[in-house]
From TrEMBL, chains A, B:
Species of provenance: Corticibacter populi
Signal peptide residue numbers: none
Protein name: Glutamate--cysteine ligase
Phylogenetic classification of the source organism: Bacteria, Pseudomonadati, Pseudomonadota, Betaproteobacteria, Burkholderiales
Matches recorded under InterPro entries: GshA (IPR011718), GshA_N (IPR042520)
Keyword Cell cycle: no
Pfam families per record: GshA
Length: 429, 429
């Protein structure tokens, strides 16, 4: 089930949404059976784009920030889901060490850390924050504008365990996506639960692996529901060894872009969609919306300017960009107060616990909204009925957040497939 | 974790409550470990009495009605917990048959059935309502004052399975406490999940078994927390073969009452409590607050009037009363708008999903509130902070519903012990 949140959608319900809404029992049962075979990621968030004719995930985050953007009513759901996750993985847990990103001056990010601490404390754990930032060499108290305090403590590594001064956790929760590579201090920890596993970090993870797994999930789900998987799956391709700065690998990239655009064009024709196809070219290992460009024609890549070259060369934490995902661009039909919007779905264990809209006033429906200037709009719970003029409840309102919750969970399931396939310890069995 | 609900408590936090609030991680871990060994009842509700010096469960219901009294904000929590319960017990479930009580004209009860249907539908099941009322021989559509419709369908029994016309459920959820005995139509169902099991019905279940199990739970929890178990455990005794109508078994009953009152008196002395001890005499297999009387002195039982005799002779569904529980009376310090109040805690699987106050304007702090004239007051979620005059959040508010959630879960755990001990199929292993 997916909480009933107020979406900005007011238009008619599309055929796809109708199909999903009338199939709730079958959809939920399908997920239940999948979770018997696969372990959901500990937590995740998924950016979803709804083009009306299709709805698809465009990014799946296994170290979600932004928990502070969920409305307060959703906290109990997140806590209950956190309890379920802890119970399953490490019921004996007492102490949880939360390892945040290294940027210690971003108050929005730190508010997210405070919210995660709140969730796991309410779930019944002693939570402390351990920094792996080399600059944090002593206890550092940060006071946030909201009045909250956050104590960042330097982690202490012994031969087999990671902890803090006078704090020996049984579970270590990473909220640091390891873009800069897996630090040695996190390696060879076998006595403690390290969540998510290290190979979920962006120094190992590849978007193209994720969307390959998602393609498989979409096919199986589409078959169950009796729909063309393309309606929930963005076409994609992959190009390696690309350097915009040195003009290397551009031709192969153009070829892939051309192929992906062709596939989209055929689908648009099949469904009578009049829009102009485009692709998002993204760092295969990138995050934070960095290293993303939109292209309508492969020829554009022959003459990109210096600024774009720079943008496409270096991503988060100074990583060089060389592997690229070429993903079908899915326009968004959602707007809020005139700003382009896309839903972000938050999950803890197998449960959808909330969501919000990412909005951007100066970006179009076919642009990347995860860019400077984006704002976040928490979603409220929708009352199940609206009262009519006589004060009687009307027909129950459809849960229009449900479809987004389904897409979010499909992407989460794909992440679960992906982590199984890329598990370095899998050969042991 | 327990949702943070607004309680009526405004007085200072008692030593006991303080002890519980400062031990959240230890308490939650203790429950997690218990649930590794024991299976929680599918759903339950617990009446709790808070005397200030002690807090105790006084009744544990394994077929909870009153789900309609939970506030709408709690629905998502109940749904998420229902998903967890279904996933664990019968992940392959598609169809759920809900069997309600036989009273088909009680709109309050029927609103509860509608709410349960809503919860399990949102959890992703096809839900239909099957009546075992012999008067329901054809489909009966009931329209509730709120505009909701409820279709009661007669159940159909085949040799091995129970269902409805064109509806073969894999799971049967009882919301009928089987006070009148287990109907043959529910017996020998081995292919379908029947929840809760038949031996949870009041024709088999005994309050004295429950409170014996609760005593054990309270001892173990008290030891972990370092508190006297009496602070959370009502003293009790049991008397069998009592007939008030025929004056039978009264002396033995008086002796038990005397013993229980003596135990309470000693505890009152130990803690310097000035109140007058009393006991609640209750049908050992009763429910609905029927067959309950309060006694301060065993001598009172020698001269009870005809009206009380009648009250104590027949309970729900015309069952004869003969086995009695003699339970320490726990006064309630909670009042709402001048009416005496007691919290009722609702649980689904191992999770506290909500609660409400049962209030009664014409009953005292030492009386049974589960009586005609009682009203129900849904509890709202408490914001975590109150804003000060400058609009800044103050210190986090303590979750005063937490303690009630702990007591509710201790009673639920006791029910789990009780059902294990009374399981007729347990010898098989």
């Amino acid at each position: 089930m997916v909480p009933h949140l107020v979406t900005a959608l007011t238009g008619p319900i599309s055929e796809l949404e109708q199909r999903i809404l009338e199939s709730v029992p079958a959809v939920e049962r399908w997920f239940r059976l999948e979770w018997m075979e696969h372990t959901p990621p500990f937590y995740s968030s998924v950016d979803v784009r709804n083009a009306g004719y299709k709805v698809a995930p465009v990014d799946t985050n296994l170290f979600p920030g932004g928990w502070n953007n969920l409305s307060p009513e959703m906290l109990p759901l997140a806590v209950q889901a956190a309890m379920a996750a802890i119970e399953k993985i490490c019921p004996e847990a007492r102490n949880l060490l939360l390892i945040p990103e290294n940027h210690t001056r971003n108050n929005f990010y730190l508010a997210n850390v405070v919210q995660l601490r709140r969730i796991f404390q309410a779930a019944g754990l002693n939570v402390r924050i351990g920094s792996i930032n080399p600059e944090i060499t002593e206890d550092t108290l940060v006071r946030l504008p909201g009045g909250e305090e956050l104590l960042l403590e330097p982690v202490i590594r012994s031969k087999y365990r990671l902890g803090l001064k006078n704090f020996d956790p049984c579970t270590i929760l990473l909220n640091n996506d390891l873009s800069a590579g897996t630090p040695g201090i996190l390696e060879d920890i076998h006595e403690q639960f390290l969540l998510p596993p290290l190979h979920a970090g962006w120094s190992v993870r590849r978007k193209s692996h994720h969307f390959k797994a998602y393609e498989e999930v979409a096919k199986r789900f589409g078959k169950m529901l009796g729909i063309d998987p393309w309606l929930i799956n963005p076409v994609f391709g992959h190009a390696g060894n690309v350097s915009f700065a040195q003009g290397q690998g551009i031709e192969a990239l153009q070829e892939t872009v051309h192929t992906v655009l062709g596939k989209i064009r055929r689908k648009y024709k099949e469904y009578g969609i009049a829009e102009k196809p485009f692709v998002a070219i993204k760092a295969d290992n990138g995050t934070y919306g960095m290293g993303v460009m939109m292209v309508q024609d492969a020829a554009e890549l022959a003459s990109i300017n210096r600024r774009t070259k720079n943008k496409m060369s270096v991503i988060k934490d100074g990583q060089q960009l060389s592997d690229l995902l070429i993903q079908e661009g899915v326009p968004t039909i959602e707007t809020i107060q005139g700003a382009t919007a896309e839903p972000v779905v938050y999950m803890m264990d197998r449960y959808v616990v909330g969501g919000f809209y990412r909005t951007h006033a100066s970006k179009g429906a076919d642009e990347n909204l995860n860019a400077p200037g984006a704002t976040f709009l928490p979603l409220a719970f929708e009352p199940e009925h609206i009262l009519d003029a006589q004060g009687h409840p009307t027909e129950p309102l459809p849960n229009r957040f449900y479809m987004y919750g389904v897409i979010g969970r499909l992407a989460m399931l794909a992440a679960s497939y992906e982590l199984e396939q890329t598990n370095p310890e899998a050969e042991v069995y």
